[in-house]
Amino acid sequence: MSSPVSAPDLLHGVQQALEAAGLRHVSDVEAWVDSGDEVLCKVTVAPGDRRGAAAVPDRVLRALPAAGYTLAAASGTGAPDSWSVEAALGAGHAVRVAHA
Question: Rounded to whole angstroms, how far apart are CA atoms 20 and 90?
Answer without folding.
Answer: 20
